[in-house]
Write a structure and sequence with these properties.
CATH topology of the largest domain: Rossmann fold
Helix content: 40-55%
Largest sheet: 7 strands, parallel
Structural class: alpha/beta
Order of helices and strands: EHEHEHEHEHEHEHHEEHEHEHEHEEHH
CATH architecture of the largest domain: 3-Layer(aba) Sandwich
Strand order of the largest sheet: 3-2-1-4-5-6-7
Number of domains: 2
Strand content: 15-25%
């Protein structure tokens, strides 16, 4: 009998975080992949990931529409509650042997609670990291609900052990997103026109001499400032005069302020050098990054994949607070002048060296192998 492995993807970034593990699970003769797509990963306004997933050859076993409109703290809490209701039904129908949840977004809490209360063994990918905001509360809570832990770094491994998890079920596999980055380094050329392939809105800048990528999300503990935060970044990038490929924020509380700030700035300024996207195939996105002048914003892709790719990153604000970094990250506050000063510093400096802080490119295969070997347990005791 094959083990049924149910992986829940709740947001567009989560798919790239787990894609190579999905491939390895699907291709392993001892495993059966049950892929569930839920929450913002299904919504066009946040970059619907289903087309990319299906084009990559994955069959979606179930779709869960549970995002409550509002993009505020109350909506996030209620979205999680709806997710528990809906995912419990999905798990009851699919009857998986192991449920896999990814990272630290608030929607992933629903996956963990549903599996734990239904006595289904739970595996957590990317536990043990620190950021200092609501994601950290979610991440460590899932660690305590999970039975198996596939962490992405040495520090995360040690932290999960300090949280009282049994060492025989904690595995430092690295991050599956680094697997994709490793493939891109082997064929790094930008072999597609981003605007022609993905549409989007905005100007059509000549990016042949270089461009910046911007991805900045609201911070859930600073929701009242999300508009003013994004305005500082908009002013800085506009002042550069360089081509900019900008990606819309995710569904976190405060996203409405971020989106409103972007729309208002577009109405009041000529942004011929800016082009805006909702989503992009994970491999194409990494190719866009590795050929850029750098990434600006607060996405974890700057901490993870860009470290491996050697892409300079201007990390703005507190969203990635205390997370392990490579040699590529420049931390700044929400200040246009600091951002511009750092842009000039990056332009005059050599590219940063690649870092393996989040793995070396074989995480997906390791995760699939461990899923075939671990005993099926859904109970544990604290080891400290």
């Amino acid at each position: 009998m094959k083990r049924k492995i149910c992986v829940v993807v709740t947001a567009r970034p989560s798919y790239s975080r787990i894609k190579t593990a999905l491939e390895a699970i699907r291709d392993n003769p001892e495993l059966e992949l049950q892929l569930v797509v839920a929450a913002s990963a299904l919504l066009d306004r946040y970059g619907n990931a289903t087309k990319t997933i299906e084009n990559d050859g994955f069959k979606i076993a179930a779709k869960v529409f549970n995002v409550l409109e509002g993009e505020n703290l109350t909506a996030a809490a209620k979205t999680t509650g709806i997710g528990i209701l809906e995912l419990s039904t999905v798990f009851d129908n699919l009857n998986p042997d192991i449920v896999v949840t990814v990272a630290d977004r608030f929607e992933t809490m629903a996956t963990a609670i549903s599996a734990a209360y239904m006595n289904i063994p739970l595996a957590h990918i990317q536990g043990g990291e620190v950021t200092g905001n609501i994601d950290e509360k979610v991440r460590h809570s899932i660690t305590k609900l999970a039975d198996y832990h596939f962490v992405a770094s040495n520090d995360a491994y040690e932290r999960v052990l300090k949280l009282g998890e049994a060492s025989e079920f904690v595995f430092n596999t690295g991050c599956p997103s680094i697997d994709l980055a490793s493939r891109v380094l082997n064929e790094p050329s930008l072999d597609f026109d981003p605007i022609q392939k993905y549409g989007g809105v905005g100007g059509h800048p000549d990016y042949s001499k270089g461009y910046w990528v911007v991805m900045q999300h609201p911070v859930t503990t600073e929701v009242t400032y999300s508009r003013s935060h994004i305005e500082e970044t908009l002013h800085a990038m506009h002042a550069t005069g360089d081509p900019v490929f900008w990606f819309w924020p995710n569904v976190d509380a405060g996203a409405d302020g971020t989106s409103t700030g972007i729309r208002a700035f577009r109405e009041n300024n000529s942004l011929e050098n800016f082009h805006f996207f909702k989503n992009m195939d994970p491999t194409d996105f990494l190719k866009l990054l590795v050929n850029s002048k750098g990434l600006v914003g607060n996405s974890s892709v700057g901490i993870r994949e860009c470290a491996f790719l050697g892409v300079p990153v201007i990390n703005i604000g507190s969203r990635q607070n205390k997370r392990e970094r490579g040699h590529n990250v420049h931390d700044v506050g929400y200040d246009r002048n600091d951002i511009l000063t750092t842009i000039q510093k990056i332009k005059s400096s050599p590219r940063p060296q690649s870092s393996n802080v989040y793995g070396g490119g074989d995480a997906g295969l390791q995760i699939a192998r461990y899923l075939t070997e671990v005993p099926l347990i859904f109970h544990k005791t604290i080891t400290f």
